[in-house]
Each structure stands twice: as C-alpha cells, then as structure tokens.
Amino acid sequence: xxxxxxxxxxxxNILKNPTLxxxxxxxxxxxxxxxxxxxxxxxxxxxxxxxxxxxxxxxIFTALMIAMTVSNTFMEDxxxxxxxxxxxxxxxxxxxxxxxxxxxFIMGTLSYSALLxxxxxxxxxxxxxxxxxxxxxxxxxxxxxxxCLGTMFCCIFKSExxxxxxxxxxxxxxxFFGGIFFxxxxxxxxxxxxSYLSPVKWMTESAFRIIYDHDxxxxxxxxxxxxxxxxxxxxxxxxxxxPEEYA
Length: 247
Description:
Elements: H1 2-15, H2 18-23, H3 26-38, H4 50-75, H5 77-87, H6 93-121, H7 132-157, H8 160-177, H9 189-195, H10 199-213, H11 219-240
C-alpha cells in the first residue's frame, strides 16, 4: 500500500511539471511534423512517406528520452526533499526507486499509446494498421528500458545534473548508431557493425518489419532484449542505491 501511495505522489509530481508533460506529449508530434515536412521530398511516392518513417523513429527516440524524465522525477530538488522523508518511513529501498520507474512508465505508456493512436487514426500515419498493438507494446517496453536506464544513472551519479549530462551522451550515441535520423550503413562497414550493438537499431528494424512486411520474427527477441536490459539496470540500482545518501 505504501508503494502505491508513493507511485501516486510521483505521478502527480510529473503531471504538475509542464516541461515533462510537453516533452512526452506535444514534442514528439512537433518532431514528427518538422522532420516529416523537411524531408518529404526525399521519400518520393513509395509506400513509406517521410511522416511514416519519422513517426516510428521519433516515437522510439522519445521512448528512450524518457530516461531524462525519470532522472527529474528521482533527483529534482523538491522531489529529493520528499524522498528524504520516505527514507525514514517503513518502506524498502527498492520501493523508493521502483516507484519512480513505475510512475514515469505509467505516464510514458499512456502518452505514447495515445500518440500512436492519434498519429494513425487522425493524421493517417502508418503505425501498423491492425498490428498497431504490437508497436504499442514495443514502444512501451522500450520506455520501460528508458525509465530503468535513467534510474540507474541517478543511482550511479547521485545528482540530476551528473546523471543527465552522461545520459545525454549515451542516448545520443544509441540514437546515432541506431539510425534514427539517417541510415548509418552509408558511413562505412565499421559504423554499420557497431550499430548492431544499439537496441535502437533492433527496435526500428522490428517495428518496420511488422508495419511493412508483417514479419514478427524480431518481435519476441527484441522484447526479450529490452526487458533483459531493464532488469540489468534495476539490478545495478539495487546494488548501488543507498537511501541515506539522498536524505
């Protein structure tokens, strides 16, 4: 019961922060619109429009960027003051950091699922048609990974500034090698080989195979990869997190 109460408080803190709300709702639509319009002439008259392409890639990008949201949920000054009181409450240390993951994941899942539905049925972007549920599940799993990744960096660096500074670099590297903005295969064999280490690469590959080829061969492996990564991040949190250091 205490865990549920903490999750509710964390969720309320997120909803009260307009920056976090905009970055997880309005911003993805703006990115899709701007990039889709700017590159519309490069996609020709094929089955995949620029809006279709960036609709998928920007949703994956946003799901990973939720790592920055959870670092604010965990380490923002007034939140840390609330965490200091929780330290002395009858709750386990796991409940403290898991509540941040849970609250951010709930917000992210609801936001991204709504954006996918709006994009497909209002703006006619292709998110898989009747297979949109699979894309929702992939994006939700990846947002969980982003939440766990952000929480892990908070436990490592113990400050919002330090966590965000390193997170930005890590996220940008994963996004770059994942080919979110352009195919990295054009940059040479070495870069292409490195790109296979990025979960973003496998996320985009799986999503596009489902949407355009109705190929689900990568769906379960990618889901397992992302969930395994989330578990590893949480395991590191359990080892490193010491509530008294945040009081």
